[in-house]
Amino acid sequence: MISAKSGSLRRAVKRNVEGYLFASPWIVGFVVFTLGAMLFSLFLSFARWDAQTPLDQIQFIGPRNYKEMFTEDEFFYKALYNTAYYSFFSVPLRVAVALLLAILLNQKVRGIAFFRTAFYLPSIVIGAATAVVWSWIFNPSYGPLNSALHNVNAFLDHVHLGFINLPEPGWLESELWSKPALILMSVWGVGSSMLIYLAGLQGVPGHLYEVADLDGASSVRKFWNITVPMITPTIYFNLIISVIGAFQVFTQVYVITPDHAGGPNNSTLVYVLHLYRKAFDELRMGYACALAWVLFVIILFFTLLIIRSSALWVYYEGERR
Amino acid sequence: MDSSPRSRTYCILTALIVFVFAAIAAGLGCSSRSAPSEGKTRVRFSFWGGFLELKLWEELKALYEKLYPDTVLQLEYSPGEYHRKLRLNLIAGTAADVLMVDDELYPAYAQSGNLENLERYIERDRDEFDFEDFLPTSLESFTYEGERFALPWDGFSTIVFYNCDIFDEGGIPYPRDDWTWEDLQRTAIALTKDLDNDGRIDQFGFNVTFGWRDMEPVIWSYGGRILTPDKKRFAMNTPETIAALQYLYDLKFKYHAMPQAGELAGMLVEIQILTGRVAILMAPAYMMSIMRGVEAMRWDAVHMPSGPTGKASRLSWDGLAIYTGSQHKEEAWRFIKMVLSDEGQRIVGKLQRGLPVRRSAVVESYVDPETPQKEEKFLEAVEYGRVTPITVKYVEMDFAIQRELDKLSLGRIDPETMVRNLEPKVNRLLSEEDS
Question: B402, A261: Cβ pair inside 8 Å?
């Protein structure tokens, strides 16, 4: 009995060994560089370590880091709020803008390849460079955006419509407008999700539209009753990716705020920037790891929420799983 | 697998691309190892700064390699983010042999055990140093618990710069060395103008960054201070400090003679004064090296204004240290000694990045009789200068104070509220230091 079982096991191993061998670069990479690092950071989150002393100096302190985070760290909730604010507005906006662009780029017009390239192009530029350009656009004294607003206001005055007065906000210099500025900036990078929508749109079978046309459906109706349901799997995918990306927003804020401090008055201190400062300015690796794990749990929660809700709104043409 | 000619072409192309990248990577790997230093000792030196600093260290490298022909000095230059990079290098154990450190982060580095204790070297080569010649406070800035883990090589005093053209256009006499903060206020208000009448101010009388270190000279000359002399307790909650902060606050909000949030945003202070957007600027001496190259405007420097307890200037020093993990400590030490030698210090002074740390070099090379400005003033400011109270918790203290100052500079709170908010926070940080 036992020998028979081990014999079959041996056969199974023999049968699969090549498979495992071929997959081994990935398996080794994952176990050592991802899983290993994750477990180490989970351990560190219960410890105190400044990363400058050898590993045997790591001091185990139990859940003190987590306690400090929830009860003493005055910037934790501020960072959480800023990140939530950013995500809450940037994710829907990005989904809407990307979908709208994809629909426009799905039209049969001349030179469509040029437009598709042009709208995708910003996604190729690295985040830091984009952020530098946007911080100039948003500059309240000599940036083009406020100059344009100023000129529009002057024109409105000129044509006796002075009662309509567009705001000329301080953008990144103002506590009130810094987060909206970041959100506007985030829309600039919708290229890659736009491309995925475009692929989704092209997968919608043409005969559905033909049938709708025969029934005399309007284009708005076709959009809501055919296009949207048919691309819900694409929306679903993009939504999850956008939520994860939004909670991890870092590069833009790091680049555009002076001293990478998340100013003015912490209004752009996002979660990952707070984590980064704890890790690499204050050298509190344990605390930073604890912050990272809390962020992981938050992202996991929202991702699961979307996955669970998907049964209600995502339509698969194939069998329901 | 599909074996149409087209897909085969793609396969071959992909293989070629992979091959080319691999070859480039291998080539890079090789080139970083083979260098024209066969049989020579390689000493690595990491530092920060702009192009001027690079020029300075290239000159000093040439001198070093001339003096010690069997050694090659490798310059490792970070234009920005130097300290973050250095920390990562220290964590990884790959830091350079000679490290540039500044006085602000020095205690934290010294405490971490990454800097070699220099007392033994100094004791051995005692007769090669003339410590009497070092400018006051410079050596103290690199002492940690009574011992030296770095030696200063250059530094700055804070002084007032002004754009002469703006004064001439406004018909206002240039400031005198015996002026007061009231004089500065009056002048700044007179020079603040909306030149094109669009309702927005284009020319501000005065500017100073709303950073606590930048404000220190005002606080000191009003008789206030940041920490108690033993650096154990917060000391800003006094009428003197609040009066100093109120002075700057009023210049910004009551008289609007200083730019507020959003005005001149993103414009470096040196550009503000060079382009005539700001008439008077309080700034460290290194501003001179930037202004020096400009011919389109005339500028000069004047001593700090006096407050109720006299003048004050902020001093800041940069030092050189040896990494404890270095394999070439003797060579590294020879490099530090060379920078501090008569010849090394003269090179430092000639380039006017900062004041050479030795008085003789300031007098001989930093002060340039050819220029209309009087560089002696930077040296005189050292005499009435003071250093920022720096502790091991500097980074955290800086962050805490700066966050409250942000609110002050946005006009969200007044100076009194600010120091009241700060007191428990800073005291908590300082008490953690002992634990």
Answer: yes
